[in-house]
TrEMBL record:
Domain TonB-dependent receptor-like beta-barrel: 280-639
UniProt domain TonB-dependent receptor plug: residue ranges: 54-146
PROSITE patterns assigned to the protein according to its UniProt record, in alphabetical order: TONB_DEPENDENT_REC_3 (PS52016)
UniProt organism field: Roseateles paludis
Region (Disordered), start-end ranges: 211-230, 490-510
Name of the protein in question: TonB-dependent receptor
Length: 732
């Protein structure tokens, strides 16, 4: 215990002034009479830490306690508090790397196209699994790691609970509600029916400044301020039916559906500090749209022999989205100058089949083989009309289709070498074929990747709980369809009748992109404390070949009469990233026995993540991977009052200011990031509880500045809203 006191003190000292509770679920019994003995049932509940220690590979697990703690209505709010994770615009980032480097699964299946973490209510989730290194039975498109969202399964006993709450961030409160009903019926049939409804209403104030050149090539310095309002509502439903056919045989049907409608409104005012005025200085924007996704998965499990198991899965899904964005611009006198409407829609369909067979081989080996095939189709179209004329005649409104076929085969062996050593070895071969058709978007692309994997666990003491984990793996990131399609997106501030500037390039895809391939090494020491706490210290290294990065160049293009500045993705030579990850959590009395009494109902947690990266082909300094901050520090505490059934807690995240050299001509500086969430919960009765929470407290301004060697720059920043909520929970 003394051996870790100094390390835990360094990490957790900022949190000691605040408190958080990890509520003990203690059971009370009613005393019996003198002649009657009560029946006492002793059941040990495995904690997330216990489950984490038993995993054959390094994996972080977060169950209902973590999901319920702050009464969140969006899964992204839960994830941003977890070690080594941050969420920006509904996109998950692990190890400081962008969303495309992180794989998101729902019940082990790739999340549907267009899926956002904001679409899912935590009340429908059973647990979260975070894996930093890939495994053979899941896709290796996980250079940064994998998040597997496990939806609720049918309960062992009747479950009926309801939640209703109000939240406020701007102008008026919004409603969120959820209901879950689960039971085990006759004949081994069980079901769970979770449904939730949610609303949002945000207001963002932002400001921007740009020093560049106008459409005639003359210096121009502009300053803008704007306010954007976002409204919306959504519903999601994830029913599950489980049929236990026998002691070792089961059939389950998992549904998942989400639908939301959104509406955004914005106004901006532009001031001219130098040079000519743009076509409009007073802009009003409107954006309306919908998003929906449905999925149905059937799974059959059978242990047809003492040492043989089979798992079969089949799934179908569909979804789509549409939007209509309009901009009305006026000059300084109020005269209309720009009327631009961009509209579009897409439809997605998906079908998949998978099978897995496992067998014990002797007393030490468990061998597993499997195969998967998935087919996705996407039909999309969009159109931009400015002042009644198509922005790009011949392209606007023309549909384009994409067909993606993914197939994979894998084999793995879990080997119990000795009481001290165990290993997990595997290999996976995966192929992705993409075919796109349409005006300006015809191409065919095929990527094949073989990924060997090795995970090793070592117990310094065969009878102890501590572990040393090491992984040597290969992973990859395939380019998505939008990166491959060479259909241009025009910067509307500069008409195609003339040139544009570095600060306002057009954008297009690149059908010649290849997958990024990464070789990774992970080593971690995990110390599990007797009272349920833990300390983990790990390091990682990734060498990435064929890194995809946006280039910026002056090109002769087909959509304009003269040369235009164009940003498009290309494969660079090589990049490396490495880091240190430290995590501590546990009861305060166990972490600091000389400071806290054993009965103190205070739990502490903290994590420190330090990152370093270097991109070949881009001059330094600061030629780091896109968006990867140098470090991130999370800390928090939970506390339960002794005199009242009240618990409270907080969680804070801090990341510093940093710069990224994106290309030889383009550099980006990012503002520091800090935020705090807090909650107070009162248990009014055994069935009723009220929770008050705040997200984004003390948040700093967010934004970035892009600069060029010419002295031109473009920066923007905004003040994120603070989200207050009150939730009532009732268990029937």
């Amino acid at each position: 215990m003394k051996s870790i006191s100094l390390a835990t003190l360094l990490l957790l000292s900022p949190a000691l002034a605040l408190a958080q509770q990890e509520v003990d679920r203690a059971q009370t019994t009613t005393p019996g009479t003198q002649n009657q003995l009560d029946r006492v049932e002793v059941r040990r509940t495995q904690t997330d830490t216990d489950l984490r220690r038993r995993e054959p590979v390094a994996k972080q697990l977060y169950g209902r306690d973590e999901l319920d703690k702050y009464g969140d209505t969006q899964l992204s709010d839960v994830l941003k508090r977890l070690p080594g994770i941050n969420v920006s615009g509904g996109q998950l980032r692990m190890r400081g790397l962008g969303g495309a480097y992180t794989q998101i699964l729902v019940n082990g299946e790739p999340a549907p196209p267009g899926f956002s973490l904001d679409n899912l209510n935590p009340a429908q989730v059973e647990r979260l699994e975070v894996t930093k290194a890939p495994t053979a039975d899941q896709s290796a498109q996980a250079i940064a790691g994998t998040l597997n969202i496990i939806l609720k399964d049918a309960p062992r006993v009747v479950q009926k609970d309801a939640r209703i709450g109000f939240a406020y961030a701007a102008e008026k409160p919004v409603l969120n509600a959820g209901f879950t009903y689960g039971d085990r019926a006759i004949g081994g049939l069980g079901f769970v029916l979770p449904v939730s409804f949610y609303q949002w209403h945000f207001a963002n104030d932002s400001e921007s400044e740009r020093l560049g050149r106008d459409r005639f090539g003359q210096p121009q310095h502009l300053s803008s301020s704007s306010q954007d309002k976002a409204f919306g509502r959504g519903i999601n439903f994830s029913p599950r039916l489980t049929w236990k056919l026998g002691d070792d045989e089961s059939l389950s049907l998992q549904g998942f559906a989400v639908q939301n409608r959104f509406r955004n409104e914005g106004e901006s005012v532009t001031q001219v500090l130098l040079g000519s005025a743009p076509p409009s200085v007073l802009d009003t924007t409107r954006n309306r749209g919908t998003f929906s996704a449905t999925r149905l998965n059937l799974q059959y499990n059978n242990r047809f022999d003492e040492d043989k198991r089979i798992e079969l899965r089949a799934g179908v899904g569909s979804g789509g989205a549409d939007f209509n964005f309009s901009l009305a611009g006026r000059d300084a006198t109020g005269k209309p100058t720009v009327d631009r409407v961009t509209s579009g829609d897409n439809k997605n369909r998906q079908a998949s089949l998978a099978g897995k067979y496992s067998q014990y081989a002797g007393e030490a080996h468990t061998v597993t083989t499997g195969a998967e095939v998935e087919r996705r189709t996407r039909n999309e179209q969009r159109r931009t009309v400015e002042n009644g004329v198509d922005l790009l005649p011949g392209l606007e409104g023309q549909p384009f289709d994409a067909r993606i076929t993914r197939s994979a085969a894998y084999a793995q062996d879990e080997w119990e070498i000795s009481p001290q050593w165990s290993a997990y070895a595997g290999v996976r071969h995966e192929q992705i074929k993409t075919i796109s058709t349409g005006v300006g978007s015809d191409f065919s692309s095929t990527s094949k990747v073989t990924t060997p994997l090795l995970h090793v666990n070592f117990k310094p003491n065969p009878k102890g709980r501590d572990l040393v984990r090491a992984s040597l793996t290969r992973s990859y990131k395939a380019p998505d369809v939008q990166q491959l399609i060479a259909r241009p997106t025009i910067n509307t501030n500069y008409p195609t009748t003339g040139p544009n500037t570095e600060t306002a390039p057009d954008r297009t895809g690149n059908p010649n992109l290849n997958p990024e391939l990464a070789t990774g090494l992970d080593v971690a020491w995990e110390k599990y404390l007797p009272g349920g706490g833990m300390l983990s210290v790990g390091v990682f290294h990734r060498r990435i070949n064929g890194l995809i990065r946006n280039s910026l160049a002056l090109e002769t293009v087909s959509w304009a009469s003269g040369q235009r500045w164009v940003a498009k993705p290309i494969n660079l030579d090589r990049a490396t990233t490495e880091g240190l990850e430290v995590e501590v959590k546990g009861r305060a009395a166990e972490l600091f026995p000389s400071v806290f009494e054993p009965t103190t109902a205070l739990s502490l947690r903290a994590s420190l993540n330090v990152y370093k990266s270097k991109v070949g082909g881009v001059p330094g300094p600061d030629n780091r991977l896109e968006g990867q901050q140098p470090w991130q520090f999370n800390f928090g505490a939970d506390y339960r009052m002794k005199s009242l059934p009240v618990s409270m807690g907080f969680s804070a995240q801090i990341a510093p200011k940093f710069s990224v050299q994106q290309t030889a001509l383009q550099r980006q500086e990012n503002l520091p990031n800090r935020s705090m969430d807090a909650f107070v919960m009162a248990q009014l009765s055994p069935k009723d509880g009220v929770r008050v929470a705040v997200n984004g407290l003390l948040a700093s301004k967010q934004g970035s500045m892009t600069s060029f060697p010419t002295g031109e720059f473009n920066w923007n920043r905004r003040v994120p809203p603070t989200w207050w909520s009150v939730n009532w929970e009732h268990k029937f």
